[in-house]
Design a protein that fits this description.
With about 260 residues, the protein is an alpha+beta fold. The protein folds into two domains: about 5-55, RNA-binding S4 domain (Structural Genomics Hypothetical 15.5 Kd Protein In mrcA-pckA Intergenic Region, Chain A), CATH 3.10.290; about 65-235, Pseudouridine synthase (2-Layer Sandwich). It is built from seven helices and 15 strands. β3 and β4 (about 50-55) form a beta hairpin. α1 crosses α2 (about 15-25). The longest helix has 18 residues, at about 240-255. The two termini are about 15 Å apart.
């Protein structure tokens, strides 16, 4: 395993933070300062960051939490505009946890966090289903339904995106599932399940049909459900959820070998 990846997988530091620490000369390999990001760490290598040993985590040693993110909170460490982030809201013991995917500022609901970078990477890159309750300001149309069934390619998917987003074109896979949940005046409520986590994917999708997503709440990720967890509260994974995760992790590792 590369040195920067070894540090991120076995400490509180992200891969990017590990890179910066190596650049700054804060990392030692076998008691000597190293600047080699790509060094392949061996079993007998001794790695320290700022004088503290980085030891491989024991197999299965990880913590997962479910957080019900409120609206008006960013999923990031810092904001240059001084807005609240999840790390202002979470208890201090979770300040080093890694969010699995994102929910934008105006969105709410289920957010998974972990202290295991390997698990965070695996789940973020997966095609596991994500389920959302959404409300749009237009009736559901046949073109929307067809696109949800068959997928969609947009050369210009900037509508519905953040104004600073550099992403323009986007491919939308067919939705795993969708269900009409109610119509009130001009508003339509839907429950949709997708198996991707692209940047503002649902907002961009419906913006293509001139519809604005006015409410978005994630209620499920894979087999993990939000249920009645109060807003801005956390819970640990249940034993059953940990068992499912370890099975998935074992399966993923086997594929990668």
């Amino acid at each position: 395993m590369r040195l920067n990846k070894f540090i991120s997988h076995n400490s509180k530091y992200s891969r990017r933070e590990a890179d910066r620490l190596i650049e700054a000369g804060e990392v030692k390999l076998n008691h000597k300062t190293t600047f080699e990001f790509a060094h392949e760490v061996q079993n007998d290598d001794y790695v320290t960051v700022k004088g503290r040993a980085v030891k491989p985590k024991k197999q299965g040693e990880l913590t997962m939490i479910v957080y019900n993110k409120p609206k008006g909170v960013l999923v990031t460490k810092k904001d240059d505009r001084g807005r609240a982030t999840i790390y202002h809201k979470l208890p201090g013991k979770f300040r080093h946890f890694i969010p699995i995917g994102r929910l934008d500022y105006a969105s709410e609901g289920l957010l998974l966090l972990t202290d295991a970078p390997e698990v965070a990477d695996m789940l973020m890159q997966s095609t596991l289903p994500r389920t959302y309750n959404i409300k749009i300001d237009k009736p559901l149309t046949q073109p929307m339904i067809e696109a949800m069934k068959t997928g969609l390619h947009l050369k210009d998917a900037s509508a519905g995106a953040h104004e600073k987003s550099a992403i323009r074109s986007m491919d939308f896979a067919p939705f795993v599932q969708f269900e009409l949940r109610g119509v009130t005046g001009k508003y339509t409520k839907l429950r949709v399940t997708i198996n991707e986590g692209k940047n503002r994917e649902l907002r961009r999708f419906f913006a293509h049909f001139d519809a604005t997503v006015v409410d978005l709440k994630r209620v499920g990720f894979w087999e993990i459900e939000l249920n009645n967890l109060p807003t801005n509260k956390t819970r640990y994974f249940t034993r059953k959820e940990y068992e499912m995760l370890h099975k998935l992790l074992k399966k993923t590792r086997k594929k990668e070998k």
